[in-house]
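fyi for ur records
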Amino acid sequence: MTPPPRPRLLVAGVGNIFLADDAFGPEVIQALDARPLPAGVRVRDFGIRGLDLAYELLDGYDTAVLVDAAPRGHEPGALSMIEPELPDATSGAAAPPEAHGMDPAKVLALAAHLGDGPLPRVLVLACEPQVRPRGDEDIIPGLSAPVREAVAHAVEALHTMVPVLLADPAATPPLVRPEENAPAPAAGLPHLVAGAAEDR
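which gave:
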C-alpha cells in the first residue's frame, strides 16, 4: 500500500496562550478544527516551542504559514500578511529560541543553522494585538474583543490562501477572496525583515 504523500504546506500557530492577545495563533489553529484545510496541509499549534518549530521547518515543506500576533501599528484585530527575508546558515550563530516566548526571527535563524538545505518559503499571517503583556505580568487570560473577532477572519483568510499556495508555492496569495481585494500599503514586522505585505 502506498503511503499518503507528505504534506507540502505547514500552517503553524505560535504564541503564548497565557498572555492575552499573544494567544491569537493557537486560537486560530483551534478554530481550524471546525473548518479543516485541504489535504496536503499540516496544521499544528507550536505555542512557544520554538525549537520544535525550527525542526519542523526542515521537514520538506514547500511553504510554511506562521500565524502570530504582531504589533505593526494598525487597528487592533487587523490582519496582515508578510514574507520575511530568510536567513542562511552563514549569517552567524543562531540564538536559541526563548523559553517563554516565540520570536519568529530567532526560530528562522535556528532552522537555517540546523538545516543542510534551503528553508521553505515562509509567510506570516499576523494580527495586530490590542492587549500586550508587560514584563511584570505572568498571566493575562483571554483574547481582547477585536483579536477574538479576527480569529474567524484568519480562518477565512487561510481557506483563501492555502489553495493558492498548494497550486503554486511561489504565488502571492490574497488575504481575502480576490473580489474583496483592495490595494494595501507595504509594512513589516518589527522583529522580521519584510518582503511583501498585504493588510486587511
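The helical segments are 24-31, 50-56, 104-114, 145-167. thats all i got for now
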